[in-house]
Design a protein that fits this description.
- The protein is an all-alpha fold.
- It has one domain.
- Helix content is 86%, strand content 0%.
- The chain is built from three helices and no strands.
- α2 (19-90) crosses α3 (92-111).
- The longest helix has 72 residues, at 19-90.
- The radius of gyration is 39 Å and the shape is rod-shaped.
Length: 112
């Protein structure tokens, strides 16, 4: 219920306002404000629940995307591992020479 303002019709009887009328209007306004506050509270609670569910869904989507990316990366690394193992088996002396050269370079860099 909304408070309505009384309008004057131009007669002397309608132009007079007494204290009781003002008190009644104030009580009506207080009721309207209380009802509005309740409605705002319900609206806010509904929006809060909506935002929580949206955030949870976004978190689940992000988790799923991260797991998929991690799985793809693991599969790619496994492919590189197989290729490296295959190359080492085909050229074992060359692989030992490369490993020794890399080890030497790392030791030189670490000493500095």
């Amino acid at each position: 219920m909304m408070a309505t303002a009384k309008t004057a019709t131009g007669t002397a009887a309608n132009d007079s306002v007494n204290a009781h009328d003002i008190e009644v209007d104030i009580e009506r306004i207080r009721g309207d404000i209380a009802a509005l506050a309740g409605s705002l509270k319900k609206y806010g609670a509904g929006k809060s629940d909506e935002y929580k569910s949206r955030a949870a869904a976004a978190g689940e989507d992000l988790t799923k995307m991260s797991q998929d990316a991690l799985s793809d990366l693991a599969a790619e690394l496994k492919g590189y591992e197989r290729a490296l193992t295959s190359e080492v088996r085909r050229h074992p002396l060359q692989a030992i020479g490369i490993a020794a050269g890399i080890g030497f370079l790392v030791s030189v860099l670490v000493r500095r």
